[in-house]
Write a structure and sequence with these properties.
The structure holds 3 protein chains of 3 kinds. In chain A, a hairpin with a 7-residue loop joins strand 15 and strand 16 (296-303). Chain A contains 12 helices and 22 strands. The longest helix of chain A is centred in the last third of the chain and has 18 residues, at 390-407. In chain A, helix 1 runs parallel beside helix 12 (390-407), helix 4 (72-88) crosses helix 12 and helix 8 (192-205) packs parallel to helix 9 (224-232). Chain A has helices spanning 12-23, 54-58, 66-70, 72-88, 147-155, 172-175, 183-189, 192-205, 224-232, 247-262, 384-387, 390-407, and strands at residues 2-8, 28-32, 44-45, 93-94, 101-104, 110-113, 115-117, 122-123, 133-139, 160-166, 211-215, 237-240, 266-269, 273-279, 282-288, 296-303, 314-315, 320-321, 329-330, 353-354, 361-364, 367-374. By secondary structure, chain A is α/β, with parallel strands linked by helices. By secondary structure, chain B is of the alpha/beta class. Chain B is 52% helix and 8% strand. Chain B has helices at residues 21-25, 38-51, 68-72, 79-90, 97-103, 105-114, 116-124, 126-136, 152-164, 176-182, 184-196, 212-216, 220-239, 249-261, 277-286, 308-313, 316-325, 349-369, 379-389, 396-403, 406-412; strands at 169-174, 199-203, 244-246, 274-276, 300-304, 329-333, 373-375, 393-394. The termini of chain B are far apart. Chain C folds into 3 domains: 8-46 and 151-224 and 325-372, FAD/NAD(P)-binding domain (3-Layer(bba) Sandwich); 87-147 and 227-311, D-Amino Acid Oxidase, subunit A, domain 2 (D-Amino Acid Oxidase, Chain A, domain 2, 2-Layer Sandwich), CATH 3.30.9; 402-530, no CATH class. Chain C contains 18 helices and 23 strands. Classes of the chains: A alpha/beta, B alpha/beta, C alpha+beta. Chains A and C meet through helix 5 and strand 17 of A and helix 8, helix 13, helix 16, helix 17 and helix 18 of C.
Chain lengths: 409, 416, 548
């Protein structure tokens, strides 16, 4: 099978890259080994979380950092471009690359971010939360969301909270299983009559609260349920992300994937690229577990297979490697150097990844593979947690690589 | 602990990093709270079952074996296999008469085709259905697929076998129970299509049921016996230089994956030669070995439903790519989701309700799609969709055969 | 919390390990007014950092007949009094091609001398008995080994001590003794917020394991101890169902023990400086040795996921006539400091092992009773611990069968007959907090209410929450929520959660490759990334570097 571009990895980065290329008329196939880390997305994306103006902050990053390789100008331009893609895919969110806003995390921490989905709680600044009192509502017996944590977080900024526990007979069936009262399963039943019952409860229990906060358990595949509920509730209503699997993450993944397929992309889920055929410094084709002797060939390839979580990188007792092609990577050799003994300190392994040239082209034994690009969290010299750059690197490097591919023709 | 033959351990459960993604896509969890969900039933439960077998939960019987959990798992955990193996290894409930009848598709099929008229009309009778429900717990809402009055193999040996020798190339066709006993026309369509491109179609000496129904009804000994016979036949075909193709995605999947993963039979020497009809044809076209020509007067709007086991194989793209080659065919892709039947699962009274609830979103989508027919590579999906969505379901091979300009195709491929 | 009206006791036991807990139980059962004090949590020392092996004594038969016969006697007692903590798995002593088979005959003779039933069997039979064992074995001997859960055992002793009137105080460190002339009259304590208190007793028993040397020094006496560190690895699931030992002179990594849902390989053995007894680090070299040697016992270990690495410190006591430490006793040491050092009212009980905790408690309590002039017999060898009482239902016969849920079966396995106090009234009680180890909301609430749970680490030791495959990724937040609700303090709960995850990491980093590294990256994304969790730099984080 032949494509213009084949992308390995179907997460945020792979999808953004695929969409960008398909929008330019390319035939693109994405091979994804299972679902991606986008499923744990909190409803917000970070560009750079360590200062007020992310674009200014980027300048302070080391020069090997993916942002620095692209340069601030291009990073800024891709940060702008993604809005158009998200809008076309019906992923509705807002935010500015020049100024972080703040979101509420599942444990009530108020955190600087770049883009937040429109239904989710957000403030311009923690000192200027627009409500004096809010109502926090949880579902009786749902364990992945504790309003007490949120209330305690809001109280630090002078916002009072009333905590409500909502019990509906509709949940009885879900609770029958000792494990399956998960946000995503709750979201499945949030339709029609149940939404009406919830709206009625919210309207009668809000008291003197000025806004309503609920766990993100509405609208698994699209935002119909969210719109319906909001229309029935008199106060402003916002969602707070839960522990995984997260509804906004699943929804974003599905919306992006659907959009990619709608514009002609091929999405091969549940398959693993096992090897590639390299000739004269170019990757000609890849072999996958499912397609066996039917190799997939293309002019260009992108590896967006993620970090350790997604097995884009694999650590053994002795070493760290990129498992498909054996690409050149940046990693410490001695196991003791991989980690810090304090979980909350800088962890070196988080910054490991494939090394590339300034166009994000990969190499093997120092020799550049001219048509194999890397994007997203597999790239070395970034530390999403220390820097607050996870979503931003995934998105901007993906769009950069797409442009490089289009330019290379 | 004895080293039981069926005690095949699958240690992929250890790769689970508890991300819960499988629970999002399990069709059963969505409708049946008595099912513990793929994570609990699979990797989490496995640790406890290894501690003590009393931790086996009979609710694992609700698993459809659709393998959608495996398709979405980012850590390559063989969740579906773990659950099926646990059912085989630990369940204390033994198969009932009903399960034997449903599972022995080949035995029941060969008896029924002999008296197809009586059987077909009897099985449609509401009283008979009620009796079946009362005595055998086969749900009375279910329509049984009707039986053909002549088996495909009988027709083949009489009408087709001889001329198959005259082609340049040949392939072995695993027709499966459905084509043999219920719908021989699909087999004939495949022969028409392949003959037109210069391929003769051969059958196995003695084909057995692929065994999927026996596996899901825990008749493991019989399934293994059938599987061994089939593997021997496949090896004979491969030795002749032929690939073995099936029109049923489930037969193909079972022989490729379940023989090894569930029955513990080593098929690695021939696995790559077990193929699906649409993938076989697509590859011939893709490599430029054959060409197809289509009629101008074929105009149809068709929706494609991706069967679970075809999704697990990752091969949906071959069927849809072939359909897209037909100029007069407008293809509508349905969302990839389980139809709920899962072979014999949906026939059982205790599952009927869940079976229909699982398929409901799919049926709704089909009804709103306004298509002439649905195409799919799986026969049990076909029964379920025809019964529940009221739309005719056809196999991609039949659609290709219908749209094919036979003369032009022969000419293109140099077939006299 | 305290049942006694004032600060005066007959006996104060220092140390919340299994020896201290057993001693408090014995004292209380003999009618002594008893207080147990612990600086951290129960089982935080060597008790929670060993193999969890119910020794048959065979391991010691060749080197130490006294220990071997103590072990087999206590083995039989524990099977009876602590049935819910014991798994009677049986054990194998295997000989590999590189080992000397003639050792086997001597070994069996030595076992018989100590009263241990040891029987040589055909290696083929051994492989059928335990399919994970190295198929290359050339010899095998069966012995009555088993598995014992030290957490449950300690908790049950604590519970019974309380039922007999003892008071228990955790998170109180001994800062000094009340002394008048040559008599110890009480202890000074400081809690975690720095508040001080004093308790008085006629007899103080030092049951602090390796930390006992420091306690003794505070009391003005010298007990010379040599810390011997042992490292172990926990594997992700139950690889073996029979204990596998190597039939040779004791060496590194020669015992593989199944314990609940996991298997344990250990140990290494190295002397460490006394200053390092709180470190509990496991080095990469130790991990590599354990894996290499462990795979000789059961080859599958080389492909099995490792959950954690941890280490404990054995207290080896130097004989009084040889302070150099060349003449080390591995047996029980029970010191009457009045006799030995002229300090009245002070006893040290140390040495010994998990297996002989009850015997150690009996010896210490006998000594205390003598000092107090109390004549009461020890009953701990015959009275079952709470949770291990013979079940009434089984006597009556099965009149009706109630199908228990998976989580209820798991809880019954952990708490024995005490599981009847775990709420299971509705679906909310049965919902799982920890999905890997099947710990329900009901079980968590039971532990919070009845088992001295102040933080998530305590909760883990009482239930197994967070001990499974994901090492707390799914359950930390849920359990913190429940604890926060119970204590009505969200902020403390979040700090506690941060500390708990860090404590889990302590056991993971020595083996941070493969699935473990993927798992911890996921956990970090969730808690540090999605949640924005940061540890409180103040109190709370220094809880303890707990492992296991």
């Amino acid at each position: 099978m032949r494509y213009d571009t084949i992308i390995i990895g179907g997460g945020l980065s792979g999808l953004c890259c695929g969409i960008s290329l398909a929008r330019q008329g390319q035939q693109v196939a994405i091979v994804s080994a299972g679902q991606s880390a986008l499923h744990f997305c909190s409803g917000s994306f970070e560009l750079y979380g360590r200062c007020e103006n992310p674009l200014e902050g980027i300048a302070s990053l080391p020069k090997e950092h993916p942002y620095r390789k692209m340069g601030i100008e291009l990073t800024a331009s891709y940060a702008e471009q993604i809005k158009d893609i998200f809008e076309a895919a019906a992923v509705k969110c807002t935010g500015e690359a020049t100024r972080n806003h703040y979101c509420l995390t599942p444990i009530g921490v108020i955190k600087p971010v770049w883009l937040t989905l429109n239904d989710y709680a957000r403030f311009e600044s923690p000192d200027r939360i627009p409500w004096r009192k809010v109502a926090l509502v949880n579902f009786e017996g749902y364990l992945d969301f504790y309003p007490q944590f949120i209330a305690s977080g809001l109280a630090k900024y002078g916002v009072k909270s009333d905590i409500h526990s909502l019990s509906l007979t509709a949940f009885d069936n879900l609770r029958e299983s000792s494990t399956e009262m998960r946000a995503t399963n709750i979201a499945r039943i949030m339709t029609g009559e149940i939404l009406e019952q919830i709206a009625a409860y919210l309207n009668s229990h809000a008291g003197d609260a000025e806004a309503l906060f609920l766990p993100a358990a509405f609208g698994l595949f699209d935002d119909t349920a969210v719109a319906e509920l909001r229309a029935m509730v008199s106060l402003p209503l916002f969602f707070i992300p839960t522990m995984p699997a997260s509804v906004p993450g699943v929804r974003t993944q599905i919306q992006l994937k659907n959009y990619f397929q709608r514009i002609g992309g091929t999405y091969l889920l549940g398959d693993n690229v096992v090897s590639g055929e390299i000739e004269n410094g170019r990757l000609k084709s890849v072999k996958t577990a499912n397609h066996g002797n039917m190799t997939l060939s293309a002019d260009n390839f992108v590896i967006a297979s993620g970090s350790f979580f997604s097995h884009g990188l694999i650590a053994s007792q002795e070493s760290i490697r990129e498992p498909i092609f054996g690409l050149d990577i940046y990693a410490d050799r001695v196991r003791e150097e991989w980690y810090d003994k304090d979980l909350y300190s800088h962890q070196a392994y988080m910054g490991y990844g494939v090394v590339t040239d300034n166009k994000f082209r990969c190499s093997i034994d120092g020799k550049c593979i001219e048509n194999l690009y890397a994007a997203g969290s597999i790239l070395a010299h970034q530390n999403a947690l220390d820097e607050g750059t996870g979503g931003g690197v995934a998105i901007t490097t993906a769009l950069f690589v797409a442009d490089e591919i289009l330019r290379s023709r | 602990m004895s080293q039981d033959k069926s005690n095949i351990t699958n240690s992929s459960f250890e790769q689970c990093i508890k991300c819960t993604i499988c629970t999002v896509y399990c069709p059963v969890t969505a409708v049946n709270a008595a099912y513990p969900g793929p994570k609990q039933a699979g990797p989490d439960g496995e640790r406890y079952r290894l501690k003590k077998p009393i931790f086996y939960d009979e609710a694992l019987k609700y698993c459809l074996n659709c393998k959608r959990c495996e398709v979405v798992c980012p850590s390559n955990v063989k969740i579906g296999d773990i659950i099926q193996l646990a059912r085989i290894k630990y369940s204390t409930s033994s198969p009932r008469l009903r399960d034997y009848i449903l599972a022995n598709t080949d035995l029941v099929g060969s008896l029924s085709t002999k008296m197809s008229k009586i059987v077909n009309s009897t099985l449609k009778h509401p009283d008979v259905k009620s009796i079946l429900e009362a005595t055998l717990a086969i749900d009375s809402h279910r329509d049984f697929p009707s039986y053909a009055d002549e088996q495909f193999t009988e027709w083949y040996r009489r009408e087709a076998q001889q001329e198959q020798e005259s082609f340049r190339h040949s392939v072995t066709y695993f027709h499966g129970c459905y084509v043999n006993y219920n719908y021989p026309q699909l087999g004939r369509d495949l022969i028409t299509l392949l003959n037109a491109v210069g391929y003769g179609v051969k059958l196995m000496e003695k084909e057995r049921c692929c065994g999927v129904a026996k596996i899901s009804n825990k008749l493991i000994k019989q399934a293994t016996r059938d599987a061994r016979r089939n593997l021997a036949e496949i090896r004979t075909a491969v030795a002749r230089g032929e690939e073995v193709i099936a029109t049923s995605s489930t037969c193909s999947f079972t022989m490729r994956d379940e023989y090894q993963h569930i029955l513990g039979l080593d098929n690695s020497d021939v696995r790559e030669k077990i193929n699906l009809a649409t993938r076989f044809i697509y590859r011939l076209i893709d490599s430029g070995e054959i060409k197809l020509a289509f009629r101008d007067d074929f105009k149809r709007r068709i929706a494609y439903h991706a069967p679970c086991h075809l999704e697990k194989l990752g091969w949906t793209i071959y069927s849809t790519s072939l359909l897209r080659m037909i100029p007069g065919l407008e293809l509508v892709m349905l969302d990839s989701q389980c139809c709920g039947i899962a072979g014999t699962y949906g026939f059982k009274r205790e599952n009927y309700r869940y079976s229909q609830a699982i398929g409901e979103p799919l049926f709704r989508q089909i009804k709103y799609s306004g298509v002439d027919a649905v195409a799919t590579d799986c026969e049990t999906c076909k029964w379920q969709i025809e019964m529940s969505a009221g739309v005719k379901v056809e196999h991609p091979i039949s659609l290709l055969a219908e749209a094919l300009d036979i003369e032009a195709t022969r000419a293109l491929n140099g077939v006299k | 919390m305290r049942q006694n009206g004032n600060n005066h006791y007959d006996v104060i036991v220092i140390g919340g390990g299994v020896t201290g807990a057993g001693t408090a139980r014995d004292c209380a059962m003999r009618g002594l007014r008893t207080l147990l004090v612990e600086r951290k949590d129960f089982t935080a020392g060597a008790t929670g950092r060993n193999h969890g092996l119910l020794h048959s004594g065979a391991r010691y038969a060749m080197t130490d007949q006294e220990s071997a016969s103590e072990c087999i006697r206590e083995n039989r007692i524990l099977r009876h009094i602590a049935s819910h903590c014991v798994e009677p798995t049986g054990g194998l002593f295997i000989t590999l091609p590189e080992d000397d088979l003639s050792y086997q005959t001597k070994f069996i003779k030595a076992c018989h001398r100590a009263g241990i039933i040891a029987k040589a069997i055909d290696p083929k039979e051994a492989i059928l008995m335990e399919p994970s064992v190295n198929p290359d074995i050339i010899g095998a001997v069966t012995v009555p080994d088993g598995a014992i859960d030290p957490f449950r055992l300690t908790t049950a002793n604590i519970m019974d001590a309380q039922l007999h009137g003892a008071d228990i105080i955790t998170y109180h460190e001994v800062t000094g003794f009340v002394k008048s002339q040559n008599r110890i009259e009480g202890v000074r304590l400081r809690n975690q917020s720095g508040e001080e208190s004093t308790y008085y007793a006629d007899v103080v028993i030092n049951a602090c394991g390796i930390w006992g040397m420091h306690i003794a020094k505070m009391a003005g006496v010298e007990v010379n101890m040599f810390p011997a560190k042992g490292a172990l690895l926990i594997f992700g699931h139950r690889v073996n169902n029979v204990v596998i030992n190597r039939c040779r002179k004791p060496a590194d990594a020669d015992i593989l023990v199944p314990g609940d849902t996991i298997s344990l390989i250990g140990t290494t053995s190295s002397r460490i400086p006394y200053e390092d007894i709180d470190k509990n680090d496991v080095t990469p070299e130790e991990v590599d040795i354990l894996l290499r040697e462990g795979s000789r016992l059961a080859p599958i270990l080389s492909q099995t996921r490792i959950l954690r690495a941890y280490s404990g410190v054995r207290p080896l006591v130097a004989a009084d006539n040889d302070p150099s430490g060349r003449n080390i006793s591995r047996g029980i040491v029970c010191l009457d400091h009045a006799e030995r050092d002229g300090v009245e009212g002070f006893i040290t009980i140390t040495g010994g092992k998990l297996m002989t905790y009850r015997l150690m408690a009996e010896m210490a309590t006998n000594m205390a009773c003598r000092k107090l002039g109390k004549k009461a017999h020890c009953q701990t060898a015959s009275t079952p611990l709470p949770g291990s009482e013979p079940s009434k239902e089984s006597k009556r016969g099965k009149s009706h069968i109630i199908e228990l849920g998976i989580e209820q079966k798991a809880a019954k396995g952990r708490h024995g007959t005490m599981s009847r106090y775990i709420h299971s009234h509705n679906a909310i009680d049965d919902a799982l907090v920890c999905e890997c180890e099947q710990v329900s909301v009901g079980e968590v609430n039971y532990a919070i209410n009845s088992l001295h749970v102040h933080n998530l680490i305590n909760l883990r030791r009482r239930t197994r929450m967070g001990m499974g495959t994901c090492q707390g990724e799914i359950c930390a937040c849920r359990a913190a929520g429940l604890l926060g609700k119970a204590n009505n303090c969200a902020e403390k709960s979040l700090n506690d959660m941060a500390a708990f995850l860090n404590e889990r990491w302590k056991g993971m980093y020595p083996i941070a490759w493969g699935d473990t590294l993927a798992e911890v990256q996921f956990t970090s994304w969730l808690y540090k990334g999605v949640c924005g969790l940061q540890p409180d730099k103040g109190e709370g984080i220094n809880e303890e570097k707990e492992q296991r």
